[in-house]
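Lecture notes, part 5. Sequence design as translation. It can be helpful to think of inverse folding as translation between two languages: the language of shapes and the language of residues. The source text, in C-alpha cells, appears below.
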C-alpha cells in the first residue's frame, strides 16, 4: 500500500488539518501492520496460508517470494518439518546449496523417518558434490518410503552413475600423477 503525505506550508489556519492528516496516516500504517494470531486456530490458519502462498509462488517461479512465505510460516511454527523441506527445495531451485542443506537437515531433525526430507537432502548434497552422502540419503529415503519410485528409479541410479564416474576420474588422476612422477625420476 502506498501512503501519500501532503506537505503543507505552516499557517495558523491549517495546523489542525496537518495533525488530523498525520493521525490518519498513522492509523493507516498501524491497520496494515501484520497482526499476530489471537488464538491457536488463527495461528494454524496463518501458517497454512503462508505455506500455500509459498507453494503457489514456487509454482509460478517467484522463488524469492516463495522462500519469504516459508520463512513467515517458520516464524509461526518452528516444528513443522514440511515447511523446512519445501523451503529447501526452493533453495535448490535458486542454486542456494548451503541453505538447502541446512533446511533439509532441520526437516530430518523434526521428522527423522520422513523419506522426502532425506530425498531433498540427497539432492542438495548432489548439488554440493557430496555424492557418497547423497547416495546414503537417497537410500534412507527409500528405506523410509519403499514406494518412492522417483528415488528408486531416478535419484539412486543417477547418483550411483555419478559415484562410478567419480571413481574412474580419481583412478585416472592417480594413474597420471604416478606416471608423471615416474617420468621425473627417469629424467
Amino acid at each position: 500500500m502506498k501512503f501519500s503525505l501532503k506537505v503543507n506550508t505552516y499557517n495558523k489556519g491549517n495546523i489542525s488539518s496537518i495533525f488530523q492528516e498525520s493521525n490518519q496516516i498513522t492509523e493507516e500504517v498501524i491497520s496494515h501492520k501484520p497482526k499476530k494470531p489471537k488464538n491457536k486456530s488463527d495461528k494454524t490458519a496463518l501458517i497454512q496460508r503462508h505455506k500455500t502462498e509459498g507453494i503457489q509462488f514456487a509454482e509460478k517461479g517467484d522463488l524469492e517470494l516463495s522462500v519469504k512465505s516459508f520463512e513467515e510460516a517458520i516464524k509461526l511454527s518452528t516444528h513443522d518439518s514440511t515447511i523446512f523441506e519445501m523451503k529447501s527445495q526452493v533453495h535448490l531451485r535458486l542454486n542456494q546449496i548451503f541453505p538447502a542443506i541446512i533446511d533439509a537437515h532441520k526437516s530430518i531433525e523434526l521428522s527423522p523417518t520422513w523419506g522426502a526430507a532425506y530425498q531433498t537432502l540427497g539432492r542438495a548434497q548432489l548439488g554440493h558434490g557430496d555424492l557418497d552422502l547423497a547416495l546414503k540419503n537417497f537410500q534412507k529415503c527409500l528405506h523410509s518410503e519403499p514406494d518412492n519410485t522417483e528415488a528408486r528409479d531416478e535419484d539412486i541410479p543417477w547418483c550411483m552413475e555419478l559415484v562410478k564416474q567419480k571413481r574412474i576420474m580419481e583412478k585416472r588422476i592417480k594413474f597420471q600423477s604416478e606416471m608423471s612422477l615416474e617420468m621425473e625420476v627417469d629424467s
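The translated text above is only one of many valid answers, since several sequences can fold into similar shapes. Residues 1-12, 29-33 have pLDDT under 50 and may be disordered.
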